[in-house]
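Q: What does the predicted 3D structure of Ribosomal protein L34 look like?
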Amino acid sequence: MTKRNRSQRLLARTHGFRRWMRTTSGRAALKWRCAKGWQVLCTKSNPNSDLLII
C-alpha cells in the first residue's frame, strides 16, 4: 500500500500526537519542537499542516 492510498486516520494513528506521547523520546521531541516555537508539533495530526509556513 502506498502513502497516497492511506487514510488520514491511519496516518494520524501511526505518526500522530498521541503516538508521539507514548514514548519518552517522543515526548522529548515534542518538548523540543514546542520550545522552538513550532506551530505544528505533529504534521500528521493536523490536516492543514502543509499550508502552514514554519
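A (community wiki): The C-alpha cells above were generated from the sequence. The radius of gyration is 12 Å. DSSP finds three helices and no strands in the chain.
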